[in-house]
Amino acid sequence: MTDLSQPHLPGQLPDKRQVAASFSKAASTYDSVAALQRAVGLDLLARLPGDVTVDRWLDLGSGTGCFSRALAERFPVASGIALDLAEGMLRHAQALGGARHHVAGDAERLPLRDACVDLVFSSLAVQWCSQFSSVLSEAARVLRPGGVLAFSSLCVGTLEELRASWEAVDGSVHVNRFRQFADYQRLTAASGLQVLDLQRQPHVLHYPELSSLTHELKALGAHNLNPGRPTGLTGRARLQSLLQAYESWRDERGLPATYQVVYGVLRKPDE
Q: What is the strand order of the sheet 143-154 is part of?
């Protein structure tokens, strides 16, 4: 029997209620600081197979609806569903158009019937799901034969500079945890879907100061949500130690922040 279990210990990923609340709160500020998210989503759109025929699409983890609107432009005669765990994001997106339907739901238990969409598009959302195998099985369930799942996610190595700098200060969890790329390889191979493309690509952003990065993470709703994170305010001495540790990463472009992005394109076999 194929092992589809996750390698993570229980509680290692954030609680979904906290994720939903954090992203709902960030709905009004998200797009102002989401340059990486837009770049990754556009890259994922460009990876869609040229022969994909779409009558109905699902934007899974649709956020502010940026890519619901892009999908509506790409497939103008198709009907679209925007689905997100964060109801605040859905309310924000609905006012801007794009998808015909806006649905609050969980990627691991989709509130959709079998074989109802031709494309599941998900950009930088499934890293928050504790069971990626469930995401894959649900995508396979709702896809029609020949349909496509296109996703981007994050893996280990993301924000490595920040993680290493905090590690030099104390032993607490300050940076969100992500899966190994090998987990994505293993789980997609065992999904029953045909893997057309699966690769990891680093995106490196640069900031003039550490505060620019931490402000951006908060505005995105993607600041530290892990169980075991420290509570209370960060003391001045510890913050100064962090700043000094992160300065060791500085290059001529500023302070780097690396995002290890996973791109996957899979197709449901024809029956």
A: 101-104, 79-84, 56-60, 117-123, 143-154, 255-267, 194-207
